[in-house]
Amino acid sequence: MMFSTTSAFIIMTLAATATALKDGGVYVIGGEQSSVEEYPSIVQMYLLLTNGDLRFTCGAVIFSKRTVISAAHCMDGDVKPCNIRIRAGSSRIWKDGHIVRVRNYQIHPDYDAKNLNANIALLTLRTRLPLSNVIQPAFIVPSGLGLPENHAVQVAGWAMANSLVYAVLQKATVYTINHDECSRRFVAAGYPGLTEDMICAGTLDVGGRYLCKSDSGGPLYMDGMLVGIVSKQLKNCTEFPFGKYTKVSAYTNWIKSNAD
């Protein structure tokens, strides 16, 4: 599915505390402060409102100078590309960095809004990103590569609260979880289980780090590689100390074939 003109909207967030988000933004509880020097491939996405203001929506990851990767559900509602802005090279939301417009976006043809399978999208930028030490493409996991269980992975994003104007990039280390066990727990709680093209990461039975919906579209890294994209999270952020991610290795070839 292709839409012409500018970006798509997405929220990505991680929180070092259990600060509540009144507007329902996404954050990770239990993280620590980071920077784009540490994660130069992460970017922020904004939606241009009718009054001219920008609303921080999702996270995304740089694939090339002209393409960023995010979650397909961030474009639910037929968001017009012309209303999207991407900020690269900044550790703070709404401040600094390099802002670009989006020419179009492409949602994976197998995307299922109900079970969130193939929850991945490519956004083509109107102008090239100026690569630097804080703006760099991610190293993409090879096609078909599986992830070992109980392996440390890193998720990064921004914490956002109504009282916090310039939220600083956060990071958290979580662990890959057995696919079947994670799926069973989601189903038992009344949620869709995991498809084969999803990753489960977090902690089992031990709290401390949680994902919320504003983390959507953000990266999951393993040993420096982009292995996952944060998928849509639950309304109750602390219901599960683990979350679903789109498995990037299932879509590596699609990304490379369709990216600019």
Describe this structure in words.
GO terms for molecular function: serine-type endopeptidase activity; toxin activity. Its main location: secreted. This is (diamondback moth) hypothetical protein. It is found in: Secreted, Extracellular space. Residues 28-260 form the Peptidase S1 domain. The chain is 7% helix and 33% strand. The longest helix has 10 residues, at 179-188. It contains two helices and 17 strands. The relative contact order is 0.24. The protein has two domains: 2-12 and 40-137 and 252-258, Thrombin, subunit H, CATH 2.40.10.10; 139-249, Trypsin-like serine proteases (Thrombin, subunit H). It has helices spanning 179-188, 252-258; strands at 2-4, 28-29, 32-33, 42-48, 54-62, 67-70, 84-88, 98-107, 121-125, 139-140, 152-158, 169-176, 198-202, 210-211, 219-222, 225-230, 242-247. The chain is globular, with a radius of gyration of 16 Å. By secondary structure, the chain is mainly β. Residues 2-28 and 160-166 have low confidence and may be disordered. The strands form three sheets. It has a six-stranded antiparallel β-barrel. A six-stranded antiparallel β-barrel has the order 11-12-13-17-16-15.
